[in-house]
Known about the structure:
Low-confidence stretches: none
Order of helices and strands: HEHEEEHHEEEEHEE
Number of helices: 5
Number of strands: 10
Radius of gyration: 14 Å
Largest sheet: 6 strands, mixed
Strand content: 25-35%
Amino acid sequence: MALKEVKEYLKKYNAENRIVVLNESSATVTMAAHALHTTEERIAKTLSFKINDNVILIVLAGDAKINNSKFKHFFHEKAHMLPFDEVESLTGHPVGGVCPFAVKPGVKIYLDESLKRFETVFPACGSSSSAIEVTIKELEEFSNSTNWIDVSTI
């Protein structure tokens, strides 16, 4: 269902036909890189957190990890990932398919600086077997992100 919503959402950017539906799982960075014939760092993984009872998504490069001290400095709170069983109901996407497109109202999206090393990256599209290749500028536009942040370590 989330894949269908992402396709509908991306229509306003004339990008819905660029979604690739894979014959294998792309639920992890390693699986996505293999399925898309690219490197792990170019997978744009989307992590979900709760900050002061608000849900946020942070999109970062596949080889980046959340740096807890940078996260706390920026958000003034310790990083708390959403529990597995709450991800879909709070973001609109299942684990393995969480992406910065067609999310639930009120979910803020942040893009991590780790992505700026690449011309294009591959975020998921609402399922554990879908993705789209986008430029960094397109990712910024399509995601309606709040802003760029630096909360990762490579």
